[in-house]
Amino acid sequence: MTVPGSGAGSGAEAEERALMALPYEAPSGTVAYGEHPSQVVDLYRPPGASGPAGVRVTLLHGGFWREAYDRRHLAPLAAALAGPGVEVALAEYRRVGGGGGLPATFEDVARVTALPGAPARHVLVGHSAGGHLALWAASAAPGSVTEVVAVAPVADLGRARALGLGGGAVTAFLGPGEHPEADPSRLSPPRMPVTVLHGTADPDVPLSVSGAYVSAMRACGGGVVLRALRG
């Protein structure tokens, strides 16, 4: 997610505009998991679906944890993923500028991963800041999640802070100082399959950020898979 002042090129900005321009897809329903307006999950199931789903896919959106970016831009993806036997839960969470940060955002994600009614297979997918939260949940608050896919995640907060990603987004999110309890790269390896997908030319979150996380997990015996995608 391109942020003003992040140094991202016009190509990334054009991709973001195209993503934001996709028509909104309304959910089948929305459930609240708390009293805050951002503590909600949109549910997507294919038209005419009946009976329990065999798979739940929970989506965590990106946007460098900022209030300006919400779940709506992932609604077309959520609708596309919903299919026979597959339900999609598009989660919102408290963000910086709207009551989020440490610990509120993490408390929300822990609630989302533990929502009742999940089938035997529960895949947690997160992008960018949402990828960071998905990897954090894999180690710290898995709930009913059985596998995780993180796309271009802000997976190593120390490296992200040093690089100034998102115009100082890590400091805005967590405040000054180190917070190892919030950093996936400093937690115990997940006990579930984790796949990290990252573009080799990502202008917002460099591939090296995911590489640092994967190296840290493997050094502790974790079996995280990194797939570098060209472009």
From TrEMBL:
<dbReference type="Pfam" id="PF00756">
    <property type="entry name" value="Esterase"/>
</dbReference>
<dbReference type="GO" id="GO:0016787">
    <property type="term" value="F:hydrolase activity"/>
</dbReference>
<dbReference type="InterPro" id="IPR050300">
    <property type="entry name" value="GDXG_lipolytic_enzyme"/>
</dbReference>
<dbReference type="InterPro" id="IPR000801">
    <property type="entry name" value="Esterase-like"/>
</dbReference>
<protein>
    <submittedName>
        <fullName>Alpha/beta hydrolase</fullName>
    </submittedName>
</protein>
<dbReference type="InterPro" id="IPR029058">
    <property type="entry name" value="AB_hydrolase_fold"/>
</dbReference>
<keyword id="KW-0378">Hydrolase</keyword>
